[in-house]
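ok so i was messing around last nite and threw this chain in just to see what happens. nothing serious, just curious
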Amino acid sequence: MHRALQWLIVGVCLSGSVSASTELCEWPRWQQFKAEHIRDGQVLEKRAQELRTTSEGQAYSLFFALVADDRRAFNEILNWTERHLARGDLTAQLPAWLWVESSGGQGHIADNNAASDADLWMSYALLEAGRRWQSHRYSSLGYLLVRRIASAEAHSVEDLGTVLLPGPEGFAGKSGSVRLNPSYLAPPLLDYLAERFPSGHWPALRASSARVLLDSLQPRGAAPDWIRFDNGAWQRTLPDRIGSYDAIRVYLWVGMLADSHPLRQPLLNAMQPMALSLRELPVPERIDTVSGRRQGAGPYGFSAAVLPLMKQLNYSEAVANHRQRVDDAWPVNTGGSKQESERYDGYYNRVLSLFGLGWLEQRFFFEESGQLQAASWAPSCG
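result:
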C-alpha cells in the first residue's frame, strides 16, 4: 500500500502527469468536513446541545488541510487556534484543550490544561507545513511548540523512562505513578520528532512510547483507553482498562505504519487476537481488555479507524464491509452544505473517517522516518 502510493508520487514527479493521480488532487470529504464543522478556522462539535472546540480538533484539521494542500484553511485554523486557545501566542504556551461556546454565541476556555496528543499533531503539522510550503513561520512555530511539549509534558519515571504525559497537569502522582493514554502515542509522529531532534527528550519518548503501546496490548491484544504505571508495574484496573473511544485510535495508528517500520510486526502480532475479532461488524463500543467482555456497538467511525489495520492484515472482506458501513453513514454530499441545525454533529466519526479513508484511498502515507507524503502534493495537482 505505502509503496504503491510512493511510486505513484515519484511517477508524477518524473513524468509531470499520471492519469490516476488526478482523482486524488481533490478531497471531497475534506471539503465536506470543512462545510459541516469549520467556521472561520474554528473546528466545532456539538455535544449534548453544547458547541465546543478542542485542541485535538484543531490539530487534526491542520493535518487534513496539509494533506489536502489547502493552505488557506491551514492558516485560518492555525490563526484561530493561536488567538483563542493560546491567548494570542503559541510561542509562549501550549494550547488549552477545551473551548466552549455559550448560548449567546460568545466562547471561552473551559479547561486551560493542554492535551499532548493535540500538541504532537499540531507541532508535526506545523513542521511538515513548513517543509511543504517553505514557510519559516510554520517551521518556527512547530519548533517552539516541540520544545514546550518536551518541557511541560515529558516526565521521567523510574523503571519506565521518560514518558509523554497526556497533559502538563493531573497525570503524575507524588509517589511516582503515572496515568498514560496509549492513543496519544502515534508512532509516526514520535519517529519524526526523534529523527528531527535527536539531542532532546524525543528518542527517549519514542522508546518509552513503544513499550507503553506493546505492554498495554496485553493480555488479549486490545488497547485500553488509559493505563497506570505504579510501583514498577502496570496496574490494569477499572475503569482505565476499558478500551473505547480513545483506544480505537491505537488500531488506526498501527494500521498506518510503514511496511518497514520496526514496530509494525511486533504490534501487529500483539494485536492479533483483537484484530481477528475486528473483522466482524460492528466493532465493539467498549471492551474490557483483561476479561475480554464486550459491550455495545461502536459507531461508524470505529469501522473507519480499523480500515488500515484490516488492509495491512489482508482481510479484504473486512475492508469492504467496514468501508461500506462508513460510506453508508457518511456519504459524500454533492448537494451543498447541511442545514444549520444539522451542522457540527458527528465530529469524531468524521475525523476517524478522514484518517482511515484518507490512508486507504492512498491520499497520504507516513514514511518509516515519520515524514508525510501526500498525493495532492504531486505537480499534476498544482
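not much to say yet. The radius of gyration is 20 Å.
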